[in-house]
Amino acid sequence: MQTLYDKLWQSHVVHEESDEPDGMTLLYIDRHLVHEVTSPQAFEGLKLAGRKPWRLDSILAVADHNVPTTRRDRGISDPISRLQVETLDDNCDELGITEFRMNDLRQGIVHVIGPEQGATLPGMTVVCGDSHTSTHGAFACLAFGIGTSEVEHVLATQCLLMKKARSMRVMVEGKLGHGITAKDVALAIIGEIGTAGGTGYAVEFAGSAIRDLSMEGRMTLCNMAIEAGARAGMIAVDDTTTEYIQGRPFAPKGDLWDKAVAYWRTLKSDEGARFDKVVTLEAARIKPQVTWGTSPEMVATVDGNVPDPAQISDIVQRHDMERALKYMGLAPNTPIREIRPDKIFIGSCTNARIEDLRAAAKVVEGKHIAGNIKLAMVVPGSGLVKHQAEQEGLDKVFRDAGFEWREPGCSMCLAMNDDRLGPGERCASTSNRNFEGRQGLGGRTHLVSPAMAAAAAVAGHFVDVREIY
Amino acid sequence: MKKFNFCDGLVAPLDRANVDTDAIIPKQFLKSIKRSGFGQNLFDEWRYLDHGEPGMDSSKRRLDGGFVLNLPRYSGAQILLARANFGCGSSREHAPWALQDYGFEAIIAPSFADIFFNNCFKIGLLPIVLDTHKVDQLFQEVEATEGYRLMVNLRDQSVTTPGGDSFLFDIDPFRKHSLLNGLDEIGLTLQHADRIKAFEDKHRDSQPWLFA
Ligand code: SF4
Are B90 and A66 in contact (CB < 8 Å)? Predict the structure, then answer.
């Protein structure tokens, strides 16, 4: 009896470096996604050593972190950012790697475009020099982020040296309440197990509430697996998975499709398979989540309060909490609903897919952002998401409500381009990290779902989205 | 990759948990397409009072005198003592590059984030896991004693304090061998090229759509 993780691992073992059961293993990589930030040194290393990519058709490249979200026709104004994007373009041209250029409709955040193109398929090993590669595990892939040396290793050998992780299953059973999304589930899980709770584990998400999620929701959940410390998150194949993939450009067609689906159906944990750890959450108890601190585990429910460090006995933990509250400019015991953001960011590889934009648009439709909101922006995850949203008129809904409607990219998720928070500015953000300075030096991030961010935009402070729709 | 055998180094304590890679090296420095020069921007937002941008002359910037690495007693430290979940967050290898470029050779913590831990081995920076009590003891000793040094011996897998306490740590034998000899992992893997090709053929037969 095997777990899904066992199956994915075993089907990619090329060689084991030792006879020990958990020694270093050479694992074959099926899909290598590449972006501009973590690849230049890898391409340079490859060239210096006189090596070539092992399998070109396994690679798909896109620039997402540095690209501007306004006026693309003017190019990238920051010369250092521009050079990084041009370096990716040049490397791809020179080696013959498929790349979606900045003005290609298919350009977008690497973790949005992989699945959107059908370049992410069940049963694959998927890597990218980016920690949120865990997103792709939603398709029953073994997908994880790697460092630049490993990017070079995969380019040169199509393999990675890895140690098998322990297995964890997170079960979410029952029905999610009205207005509760995959983002709330993800934050609730992190609140429960902590940001290091998944360290050393590959996590499978299972249970009836997970099966009820759309592929977009599953991607949101697996995306956040890394915020729980797990390098990989994954979900078994079902009809939702295959329906999403069918007809996408890189997906198999005709006879191959049928053959593939027959195999994919086996990609689930066997009945009775053993996990090293099991965590269970009751779906009906999950409420809308809002982070109050500088780590995703510093999270509360919307009807709760900012915690009080005086109540914490562990010294290291108390100091961390005090430091976080100071950075966030929050007093202990403040009700979450009284926190007033200055900016709203709807975007990132966590929550910038069509379903996310629809959920946010539904909340703001016919309303307007509150007077204290200095900027509210929607940054679609890809050119195709943007196009689809425009077909549905969502851009107009957002614009009428006072939002800016931008071009696709990572944008203010990490503020490598011009989109960023100023010192002390507070943001309701649908991204995945609330670390100090993540969205701009001194910026204060509250992680929430798209509907919650939209509701905060309209009210000018956090509100329980369940009360407004 | 840099070889690692032995390090007798001054220790600097960084007493906070969950230090993320955004804090270790902020994103604006990730725009560089080079692999070197990140040390001056290690912990940039904590180390300097002004906002750092790539290309600035760090020697002219205002230091935050209260930040631990700016205290004269820790100047030239080679071993970083840290708390749980060190290196969480983004996969940027720029974080270990910055630590190494600054002069660190080893990092001791009760736990590390997976990707960061892995990245360290690729460049010859040694991450050492010791249990929380031992790390607590080291924090107390280093804060109490100026010039506090630790001896790290990879061959013996030991960390020895000035008082003579010796703590053993675990390391995967393959990784240990690579570090001791400064081996090029890509070169090693390519020695298995035939195996990789054979695997690929078999894989293509069973899942042809992956190669279409
Ligand atoms: S959207 Fe944010 S988390 Fe996702 S890849 Fe871009 S920078 Fe990373």
Answer: no
CA proximity to B68, closest of B15, B122, B104: B15
Contact B98, B39 (CB under 8 A): yes
Residue A316: per-residue pLDDT: 82
The partner residue sitting opposite B189, judged by closest CB among A23, A38, A161, is A161
Distance A349 CA to ligand 1 centre (A): 6
Q: What interface predicted TM-score (ipTM) does this complex get?
A: 0.94
Q: CB B5: neighbour CB atoms within 10 A?
A: 12
User: Does the beta carbon of A109 lie inside 6 Å of ligand 1?
Assistant: yes
Q: Give yes or no for B70 touching A (CB within 8 A).
A: no
At A6 the pLDDT is 98
Q: Give the pTM.
A: 0.96
* Residue whose CB lies within 8 A of the most ligand 1 atoms, among A39, A183, A227, A414, for a mutation test: A414
- Could you give the CA distance from residue A363 to residue A351 in angstroms, rounded to a whole number? 15
Which residues does chain A have with pLDDT short of 50?
none
CB contact under 8 A, B196 and A157: yes
Strand pairing category for A232-234 and A404-405: unpaired
- Summarised one tens digit per residue, pLDDT across range A442-464 is 999 999 999 999 999 999 999 99
Six token digits for residue A228? 């729980």
The rounded mean pLDDT for chain A is 96
